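Q: What structure does this chain adopt?
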Amino acid sequence: MKKLSALILVILLSGLLPEQITNACTNFLITKGASKDGSVMITYSADSHVLYGELYYWPSKNWPVGTMADIYEWDTGKYLGKIPQKAHTYSVVGNMNQHQVSIGETTFGGRPELADSTGMIDYGSLIYMSLQRSKNAREAILNFSQLVSDYGYASTGESFSIGDANEAWILELVGKGQGKKGAVWVARRIPDGYISGHANHPRITTFPLADGVKSITSKELDKINNPEVETIYAYDVIDVARSFGWFKGQDKDFSFSDTYAPLDFSGARFCEARVWSGFNMVNSQMGQYLDYAMGENLKNRMPLWIKPDNKLTPKDVMGMMRNYYQGTPMDMTKDVGAGPYGSTVRWRPMEWKVDGVGYIHERAISTQQTGFSFVAQSRSWLPDPVGGINWFGVDDTYYTVYSPMYCGITRVPETFAVGNGDIMTYSDNAAFWVFNQVTNFAYTRTRLLIGDLQKKQSELENGYMNETVKIDKTAEALYKKSPADAVKYLTDYSVKSGNSTVKQWKELYRFLFVKYVDGNVKEKQPVPKGYKFFVPKLTQPGYGDEWNRIIVKMTGDKYREK
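A:
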């Protein structure tokens, strides 16, 4: 999760911790060999009930010698201190920079003993400062290590997805404890042809120990750019665990996940299940891990990465982000909690009791509390400003539209811009509020109107994907003559696309509201000859046989005709 509004300060004062309200995101990592076109893809859903969905932007900039950067905790706005600014920083659009580097995260918390209130670099600052300082994924890992070592780590445990045009890495990191500068972490490169994912629980278990060639420690970062390096970790990641008494075995048996955030039922059912659900959509063998995803067999742990049955397109990956466990025993639309019209969401809290017995709601990838999400696509065969596309959407992933934001653009659409509304300020021209209008209307009528919604969703996304093929060619040709002209061309296109998406979604809302208001379904009819106006065709779908049976079961003969 990322930056919240000032509302979070009120929440903090009332006694809730940030982690209680922000700990809920999902990432997938797709390598070049696992994608149909040879691109690397990183996904991210930034989930929080108080996160405002907007597209962040930092321009590239040269800084005078001695400039200091102010660090504010991303979740709370708390001032943490100053650090020296780099002489030159790169532009960033959302979570992707001008060099096609993208970073996402999910919070896992970890052992509370490892939190450090004296740290200066929180996870949000770690992401966005590294994006401004890194030309590739390995350089981002280097910046991660240096920033937390130099200034201390201010957050709890995090899993990060780091990608560029050639590689995808998962990096998991947690602090060392109160007053102890730095962090312990492990980074692993996803093998080409495979995909990975994480969702609020660390997924790196054992890993190859340092051999100076394929695996190195943070004391050997001078080797980080050697292409054969595929594992990097903090030199003391095992020693810190031993100092707390959490690990006593041989180094080769050390598991980052099992040591720093031991898995329990909630970790599997609420977190790992989301990774499983995405994997299950693209790999036919994932059924063997269903008992693990449901929290029934924690020993049947699924692998860190898997190979998809077929190479994936951006559309396929967007589909993974739209998962609500459809086609599985955890399908959100298949029980009474879905209501008569098959809602894909459940109102919180997730854990609840009846007569002293505890129950849960499923936590799916697709959820109502998403602020924003993206599929960052990095393409090595194109110049950086052309090759990187941040497919960006706001609100619930199942209902959103992913609009193309090229990574080299110099401004963002007004409808996505920071300052156009906030979590407590409605704006009828802000993507976040426009999409929320549609989704909140759809939640109570999902089965009735989802066809109309998805028709428009597919029309827009397929249109953008077809357009970008032509945009790529034109921009690449322009870039050879004038990089500045190419960037302007891509900026104008991205801004137009984003604003157009919101405009058309406004129109969709008006259409859906008119057609489905009051539980009816109305279809426009031609005005008959000799008549002044038309009367729409009206159907009243009611609740359906299944839900009517539930009513009868709960009420007996109360409503039976006499």
